[in-house]
Amino acid sequence: MPIRIPDELPASDVLKKENIFVMPMSRASTQEIRPLKVLILNLMPKKIETETQFLRLLSNSPLQIDVELLRIDDRPSKNTPTEHLDNFYRQFNTVKEKNYDGLIITGAPLGLVQFEDVIYWDHLETIMTWARKHVTSTLFVCWAAQAGLKLLYDLPKKTRKEKLSGVYFHKIQQKFHPLLRGFDDSFLAPHSRYADFSSEYLEEHTDLDILAVSDVAGVYLAATKDKRNVFVTGHPEYESHTLHNEYARDLGEGMDPAVPVNYYPNDNSDNEPIASWRSHGHLLFSNWLNYCVYQQTPYDLEHFSEDNFTKDD
C-alpha cells in the first residue's frame, strides 16, 4: 500500500522514479481506508533531503500511511526554501489537539551543543510531553534519541571524544522481540554522531529493552517495554552518499575528519561508497509500523488513551 503525501511535495517525484507507490491526496480521498497517521518532526537543516529519506522507508509497508510534516518553530531556514516550509510543514499549534498513530523525530546537527544551549529545547520538550498523550509510538533517531533519553529518563549528555562515523556491525540481543523480526543475527547500519550510548549505562539507568548493540558504536536500538518509545542511535534512513557528503563537507570546512569506517571499498574515499544497510533500514521501519504502531493503536484516534498501553503489552 502507498504512503499519502501532498501531490506537489518534491519527494513525490523522486519516489515515483524509484517505482515506489505514492498515492496523491486527491486519489486517497476516494478510498474508504483508515490510513495510519504519522507525523515527522524534521530537525535536519536540509529538510527536503531528509523528508525524502524517511518517506522512502515508510513506503515499504502493506499499510496505507498518511504523513504530515512538522517544523520545530518558525525561524527562517538557511537550507530549505521558505515556500516549501510554508506549503508542506505544520506548526505545532495546528496539530496539538490531534492524535497520531506514530511520530518520528529526526536527528539534528547538534552533537557538540549542550542541551541547555539548544534554542528550541523547551519547545522540543513540549512536543515530547504532548506525544505521551497523543501518539501511539514515537521513533527517536540519532540526536533525537539522546534528547529523548534526557527528557524521558533525565540522562545527561554523554559525548565522545571523536565523532563516530561509518557503517558498523551490530548484534541483536532479543531475537524474538517484534522490532527484530526478520533480522539477521548480525547486521550493518550507519552512524554519524558524537553521542555515546553504552549498553552498560542504559541498562543501569533505564528500564529499556536493549535490542541491538555494536562493540564499537554501543547501543543501536532500544525500546520501552510498551513499545511506545523506540530509540535508534544511527541513521537507517541515510542514502548511499549521505556519509560521503558529510565527510566532504567537513573537509571543505578545514576540519580533519576521519574517513567513515567500513563505508568506501578498501576504506579509500576515492572509491564509490556502497550502501550495505538498505534492507535492514526498510525492515526496521516496517516492523515499527506494524508491531509498535498498527498493532497497538486504536482504530478511532479520537479514543486514544494512555490507559490503552501497559508495560506488559
Protein architecture, described:
The protein is an alpha/beta fold. It has a single domain (3-239, 275-302), classed as Rossmann fold. It is 29% helix and 23% strand. It contains 9 helices and 12 strands. Strands 1, 2, 3, 4, 5, 6, 7, 8, 9, 10, 11 and 12 form a 12-stranded mixed β-sheet that branches. α1 packs across α3 (47-58). The longest helix is centred in the C-terminal third of the chain and has 17 residues, at 278-294. It starts with a strand and ends in a 19-residue tail after the last helix. The record marks 111 as: Important for acyl-CoA specificity. It catalyses: L-homoserine + succinyl-CoA = O-succinyl-L-homoserine + CoA. One of its GO terms (molecular function) is homoserine O-succinyltransferase activity.
The gist of it:
The chain contains nine helices and twelve strands.
What is the CATH C level class, in words?
Alpha Beta
Q: Give the name of the CATH superfamily.
A: Class I glutamine amidotransferase (GATase) domain
Mean pLDDT, all residues: 90
Proper CATH architecture: 3-Layer(aba) Sandwich
CATH topology title: Rossmann fold
Instruction: Estimate the strand proportion.
Output: 15-25%
Tell me the total number of β-strands.
12
Structural class: alpha/beta
Helix content: 25-40%
Distance between the termini: 27 Å
Most strands sheet: 12 strands, mixed
- The coarse silhouette is globular
* Succession of helices and strands: EHEHEHEHEEHEHEEHEEEHH
Count of the separate structural domains: 1
Rg of Cα set: 19 Å
Counted by DSSP, the helix tally is 9
Report the uncertain regions. Answer: none
